[in-house]
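To: structure desk
From: M.T.
Subject: fold request, one chain
Message: Could you run this one when you get a chance? Sequence is below, nothing fancy, just the single chain.
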Amino acid sequence: MSETIRAKALCLFRQDDRILVNQAHDTVKHQDYCRPLGGSIEFGETAAEALVREIREELGAEVVNLRQVGMLENLFVYNGSPGHEIMMIFDAKFADASLYDRPFLAGAESNGEPFQARWRDLDSFSDQLPLYPDGLLALCKASHGATATPLSSTEIEELTHLEEAMWIASSRYEPAFQSRHFANDFCEFGRSGRIYSRAQSLVDDLSPEAISAQIPLDALALRRLDAHSVLLTYNSHVEKAGIVQHARRSSIWSKIAGTWVMRFHQGTPYEP
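Reply: Done. Structure tokens follow.
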């Protein structure tokens, strides 16, 4: 397994207390485990687009009503090899309602290997049959039946100001601002396809490059993910060497110890 951080999208297809999972086996740990369906986000597509594509490829099924319910960072060892993933967790519905009545759904991995996805109750997962990635079971239980509290006007104002500050050189390159608002586990998937850690995102250049970005941010939307995290999406328009570069942007901010910190950012180029 390569030593790179991979971005993935998974879907619960939740019905009350049951979700759709694929059961697999770790030959080194000699342990079965379960994981929702989904797969890797390819360069140039959003997490939602990746999920629709993966379910279509794996099950030949269409999904509707996608909504992101959380994000998990997954550091793991599988078959003796370490891995590191950023997981975008979604819930959605099958367009074909008859799929919910089937005891299992026949599918195929990208390598052609067949599998059977089955509906399982949340209470069926245990140390003997864990649900991966770590933290997903807790996320499912915490979000069950919960109604997200709408963002307050103060939260919207604070997060809009912080996101825009990332596009203003006087704040983006200010050491105290960087230290305060980049989370320790920050990760960015840049518009070039490069992955940046927190350390790589901090800038200590005394004469940093100017930023010529459109402010206010275009099509900015904010959505609460959980009690402490918010997803921001928008379009960026940045001029470099006389050329305007356009990208779809998404950021995840979490409030930790009373301070908003950016935990994840992604940019995907597009042509208007």
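Reply (cont.): The helical segments are 47-59, 136-143, 153-165, 169-172, 175-181, 198-201. Let me know if you need anything else for the meeting.
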